[in-house]
Amino acid sequence: MSSKPELAASRPNIQFIDLAAQQARIKPKLDTAIARVLAHGGYIMGKEVGELEKQLSAFCGAEYTLSCSNGTDALTLVLMAKNVGPGDAVLCPSFTFAATAEVVALRGATPIFLDIEADSFNIDPAQIDAGVAEAKARGLNPVGIIPVYLFGLPPDYARIHPLAEKHGLWVMGDAAQGFGSEIDGVRAGNLTYVTTTSFFPAKPLGCYGDGGAVFTNDKALYDTMCSIRVHGKGSDKYDNVRVGLNARLDTLQAAILIEKLAIFADEITERQRVANRYSAGLRDVLKTPEVPANMLSAWAQYTLVAESEAQRTQIMERLKDTGVPTMIYYPKPLHQQTAYRMHPTATGGALPVCEDLANRVFSLPMHPYLDDATIDYIIAQVRAAI
Ligand SMILES: Cc1ncc(COP(=O)(O)O)c(C=O)c1O
């Protein structure tokens, strides 16, 4: 890799995600919140857990919020509550983090991989009929679909919902990257039957460890998940009415999240500023991310598409030499991964859109504390590389 001395000399210190800047903004509040938990000692299911759930429901509009151990367990809690198991099939996009399909396979069910739409990076609703047909042809029972809010953008529910209804599929939105996003002013968490999110530190709303949540308006689903979250408890935790999990959110993480949620709406606005400035400076030289007029992205990532794999390598090398960190999300779609390639695709074979994009996408630094001068520096380096 070329590391040119004249470029290295002026390398700025740019973070891909700057959690320290956010912490500096609310440090006294975090310290007080953490000290409060240490003082009362209710480390498991302390009062902050219920308080956070109430505040998350108020934020997103979902009637019921169930906090939990991480975004992967959030998906699993729903699949267990819906009794998903061997013989069942669940439609998922192939271009996502492994957890989306992992939970399906872990239940002994079969993920059916669908391609994505090039402009949104999200699941292609036009493949739902084929995905359902593929499941049935294999003697499987298609039960649900997990659209993902990739890079923070909501899925195209207006097209997904009628097709899901036609085939009798439940819809679970995987908003691990998309909490804070909106369609027509309605926030993720209240856009479909059930929604999950992750509070992994790098997510738009992150804690200082692992955490997650499930949002729904279905009381029966919520009650079942409450039981599964604590070892399948019945009237109390020593009354076990089903096989469950230990999937609780720590009180300390809840206390931290309460402080972060207080500035979250402002941070989402700042993320729009960053994304808009990137797009204004780059859309004449590269394919920039598109957000439909009625949607708001949570901008977990700002992802560009190079003309070719070679051009992507050239840009990423120049950025590395000039102190700009970049990442590739994702270098390989799930239907091509060793752990998942035995599972069917909606087409019965290749998924050309995500296979092509995996070779050309790359993401720039994205967080609410990127100042305009740093954004302009990054834009200038990308332009200079092309
Ligand atoms: C799309 C998607 N789903 C699920 C997860 C899992 O979340 P967690 O890491 O909190 O288990 C992630 C996290 O990276 C994700 O990006």
Q: Briefly, what is this?
A:
This protein has 386 residues and is an alpha/beta fold. It is 40% helix and 13% strand. Residues 70-72, 96-97, 99-100, 148, 174, 176-177, 198, 200, 210, 212 line the site of pyridoxal-5'-phosphate.
Question: What number is the mean pLDDT?
Answer: 96
In quaternary terms, these chains amount to single chain
Low-confidence stretches: none
Helix content: 40-55%
Q: Can you tell me about this structure?
A:
This protein has 386 residues and is α/β, with parallel strands linked by helices. 40% of the residues lie in helices and 13% in strands. It is built from 13 helices and 12 strands. The strands form 3 sheets. A 7-stranded mixed β-sheet has the order 1-9-8-5-4-2-3, with helices on both faces. A 3-stranded antiparallel β-sheet has the order 7-6-10, with no helix packed on it. The chain has a two-stranded antiparallel sheet with strand order 11-12. Helix 2 (19-40) packs across helix 9 (251-261), helix 4 (71-81) crosses helix 8 (219-229) and helix 11 (309-321) crosses helix 13 (372-385). The protein starts with a helix and ends with a helix. The structure holds pyridoxal-5'-phosphate. The site of pyridoxal-5'-phosphate (PLP) has 15 residues, from helix 4 and helix 5.
